[in-house]
Fold:
Amino acid sequence: MGSRRLVAILVGLIGLLVVAVVIVAVMVTGGGTGTTPAAETGPTGPTTGGGELRLIGSDPPTLDPAVSEDADSASYIVEIFSGLVTYEMAADGKMSIVPDLAEKWDLSADGRTYTFTLRAGARFHDGRPVTAQDFKYSMERAMKPATLSTTADTYLGDIVGAQQVLTGRATSAVGIEVADDRTLRLTIDAPKPFFLAKLTYPTAFVLDRTNVESGRTWTSRPNGTGPFKLIEWQLGQRIVLERNPNYYRGPVQLQRATFLLAAGASMTMFENNEIDVTGVSSFDIDRVTDPTNPLSKQLITCPGAALGCPQFDIFYVSFNTRTAPFDDPNVRKAFVRSVNVEQIANVVLRGLYVPAKGILPPGFPAYNSALKPLGFDPEAAKAALAASRYGSAAGLPRIVLTLPGGGATAPGSVEAILEQWRTNLGVDVQVQQVEFATFLSQLNRGAYGLFSLGWIADYIDPHDFLDILFYSQSNQNHPGYRNAELDGLLEQARTERDEATRIRLYQRAEQLIVDDAVWLPLWHTKQYVLVSQRVKGYRVPPFVIPSLKDVSVGR
Amino acid sequence: MSSALPAVEESKPPESARSRHTILRRLVRRPVAVVSLAVILVIYACGLLASVVAPYDYRAQNLEQTFQSPSLQHWLGTDRLGRDMLTRIIYGARTAAVVSILAVTLGTVLGVVLGGFAGYFGRWVDTLLMRVSDILFAFPGMLLMIMIAATLRPRVTAWAAALQDSLGFKGLVETGYIDYVVVFGAMSFIGWAGMARLVRGQLLSLREQPFVEAALVNGASAWWIIRRHLLPNAMPQILVSVSMGLGGAVAAEVVLSWLGIGVQPPTPSWGTMIAENQGMLRFYPRLLLTPALVVAVLYLAFNLFGDALNDALNPRSR
Amino acid sequence: MSGYILRRLLWAPFVLLVVSFVTFFLGLYGPGDPVEVRLGQRYEPELAERLRHELGLDRPVGQQYLEYVRKVVRGDLGESIKFRNRPVAELIFDRIGVSVQLGLVSMALSLAIGIPLGLIAAMHQGRWLDTAIVSTTLLPSAISVFVTIPVLFLVFVRTLKLLPAGGWGGIFDVHIILPAVTLALAGTAGVTRMMRASSLEVVGQDYVRTARAKGLPERLVVGRHILRNALIPMTTVVMLSLGSLVEGAFIVEGFYGVPGIGALALDSISSRDYPVLMAISLIVALSFVVANLAADVVYSVVDPRIRYR
Structure:
């Protein structure tokens, strides 16, 4: 009997041992296999002045500039790659387009041809010089259908010949001309003043052909042109960028930036000195702004607001103007006027965001401080509903608000809005959450009658908000809004070369959109960022642009 | 997290029939059992009678009275939108009660029926059942439940909406009842196997008994045998399984709602309450701790009661 | 004995096939259409058609499934939807090691605490110590991670500043402590209960009474007879839990930022990254099946009666 037991225990122990060996083997090889494209640069920690910046980041879906369409990807892409021009933020917050890989450019008299002269010292990370051919290759690749870029049409589609490439009928665009190694000529189909701004977007960045064709996972070992190189990307754990010593504008100060992807509570990590930068949640904000708290000295201040850094974005609820019941403007007006956006922003969002009156954010060109919103007025809302073809809340069909997202709860602000519709208008609206990408694609087919979304500026021009989102034939016109008068204004503004007239046109367009209750504008966000005192030069721009260039971290 | 209806171990051969009274008496003598049962019953009763018991409308917001501390008007204070916490907890109990009862009932019925078939007809039917349940057990329970809830919910909701619209009545989708269907459907789909195995085990050992053979010879029908012998013998273990199952179902509902694939807002659920308040532990701990503690207490009660029941059924003396 | 094992061995691939079948179909009929997911905001019918063809989604379902199986056998688990062009296999295998390490440490903790407690509880069955132990171990697991995590965090990270707030550094790194302890809190209850139940079984046996009657000191009774025999069923329990190590505790991993399988599952649920979800299900099922098999084999070696059922 005893030996049998012994055998059993032995077997059990051996089993455990085997498993343990396997585990150890996995430990040694696994848990650490990421992609390490270039040679490791030795121990972590700053080796020269400029220091190392530690932040929290998210895994970017992609690092291919032609394919990326989200802010996470863009935030890394703009540091690793670059294009002809870029945005820079001055100390006073003013944004301007500055030369990047192109050292200068000329615009033809008819406003349609840009001639770019590339910098002499422009090189890829591996030292190879950047030529105009590389730009032609990159842009045409972005437009090629096989690349499956969803942004090429928007940002490069104005170039002559682009449509042919986009639809697969040609492999080369006539409007992209290589005059010589350092001269690139782009011709667009009409004198659109915002075209230059579009070139700041990643789709127009330059790529190294050899790098791209080296395999499907080339983005884990990119050969870019930006101020930083990607030296480590361990999925779910860490992304490390390191200074590019060959950067054509001179190597930047910051030696290294480490993004922790597997992060937990960022505020706590910041206070425990595990990271150098963090966002502040709405609950920590009171603590952080208290002048007696040392943290308050580390809060970044931005021009344009007493507290926080305003972003060029807008969050809103939109109506589908093509289907019942929101094809009736009275119903829309009823829904807009029954929500007290200011109260919700102040209470639920604790005053951290700026309630929106219109579409364009404050500080944006053509922003109209005199814009007249419809305003909160429950009586007027009920009257509008009564005047509609449904007559009352009971006559309305079932209404569902669709949100992108997959979290457990709808945001408090959404629940507050729903409740206000219920008490002020008597309408019981359901909410459903749909996964983000599915949501976006269904949107274009007009599947949702009522939905909520946000839009962040890609470049600084009212065209990016008003034309792209409301022009009747734009494929980003999710409400499906058709208004001939609006279209006329927008078309005119596209090619209007007098700045003041353009602004007036856009302001009239905005008022029209607001009057017709196409959206229920909610708020423009602000970012609240804490930065360790050792970090200098860190700023929070109003949208995604390269921002690590001027950073340095002392000891 | 374990799966909703935990597998019960292979049944022990039935000893001589135990009187139900002895079991009951043994149970009542243990204060733990009594207290936990009482807790369970109180919570479930409150939940099922929510519309009567709760002081406020669970959706009523009051943006001027957010984050209030407990007071006479709001015994548990208010949440981030000014809603009464006590009301939401009570309605959360309703969600938990409805979902768990439905899930366990469906799982038990399915399990008993299928297990009964397997045990009675034996051979290939039995093998089939065992294989199917093997496969079910091979699945990581929580993961499967999540996948089912995540993938089927929109379809079920859309189907219900279409049904509503075509038949011209409101209320199924609006009240969120349809969510219950998705959630408990997913749970019982996973949970029936344990019960089936249990019943089948009982039946198999029962078949060997001489008195069953005798009954069969005397022309007793299968149904009579099941009712007269199987059920009373299996009942105690079925009960234990049900008790544990309810506890597990409540826990699973909380996790599913926490992930966002359980009941949807504004239908209150302890899981969604936990999710929406977990960021505020530092500032308003009451909002997170209240639902979490209620869940904990209920789960504890189910476990303790199940344990007590188990001990009462299988007493072991030193 | 070999016949029994052989039968169990043949069963395993069949189970896997069914599992893959189920996950594949769930993924197919789920709400997220991979093409729509990829194209997102700039969805256009033309582009969609192209993508659909490229992904092979326009072929009949049966064919798609076969293709899927063929690829899996070769080790190709497909490409993630969220992380463009990244092989799923790469995503997963990076993380399995992490989850396993975390699981091992927490299991070791649970065993170290639960086994002695379970034994003690069994020795004092019915008395207050028994109830006390059962309730105390049950409490943390019942309270659910939703509370234990923030509380532990508040105490150890925020207030005492003893432990780091997030991230991962491998099995011998301080980052593993909080997640492992959190998981162990829940696991201890199960271990205690099992140990208690199995000890109770042993205690009732004749040979224990005999040993006592012989005048053996209690210490030896417990150590030589009860403990050893009660531990035997525990080995199967351990083997079975080893199988679930790979599953990863997703809530714990997600909160503490542990880059394991659980966190990946959580993420792919919310981003509807079906290839990843399906692959995870497959891998976890595989480990369950293997663990089950191992447990069955060990048990049949240990308790020959099983073989003759």
Residues 1-17 of chain B have pLDDT under 50 and may be disordered. Chain B touches chain A through 31 residues (CB under 8 Å). Residues 214 and 231 of chain B are 18 Å apart (CA to CA).
